[in-house]
Write a structure and sequence with these properties.
Elements: H1 2-22, H2 36-46
């Protein structure tokens, strides 16, 4: 019985850790938030 409770708790903790990694916020910067200098620099790097 104690073994089963321990196993369930370990699975729950592992699920919480995995879900936190998937829910990390991506810090994306969009074009309309960039200045013209940054956009020109990126355009030059691409071309």
């Amino acid at each position: 019985m104690l073994y089963q409770i321990g196993t369930i708790l370990i699975i729950i903790v592992a699920a919480i850790i995995v879900s936190k990694r998937f829910n990390q916020k991506n810090d994306l910067i969009y074009e309309d938030e960039m200045e013209e200098d940054e956009l020109k620099k990126l355009d030059d790097e691409i071309n």
